[in-house]
Write a structure and sequence with these properties.
mainly alpha, 3 helices, about 80% helix
C-alpha cells in the first residue's frame, strides 16, 4: 500500500529533474549533471538552475 502512495512522488521528482536538465541546457550547462543534481536536491536544484547565471 505504501508504494502506491509514494509512486506519484517519485514520478514528480523525476519529471522535475528532466525539466531542470532542459533548463540547464538552455543556459549552456550540462543537462546530465543537472539531472543528477536535481535527483538529489529536487526543488532546490530548480532554484539553483534558475538563479545561477548562464554558463560560458
Amino acid at each position: 500500500m505504501e508504494t502506491l502512495i509514494a509512486a506519484p512522488f517519485f514520478v514528480g521528482w523525476g519529471t522535475l529533474a528532466l525539466i531542470n536538465a532542459g533548463l540547464a541546457q538552455a543556459k549552456n550547462r550540462s543537462g546530465l549533471a543537472w539531472f543528477a543534481i536535481s535527483l538529489l536536491l529536487g526543488p532546490l536544484g530548480t532554484l539553483l538552475v534558475v538563479v545561477l547565471p548562464k554558463g560560458s
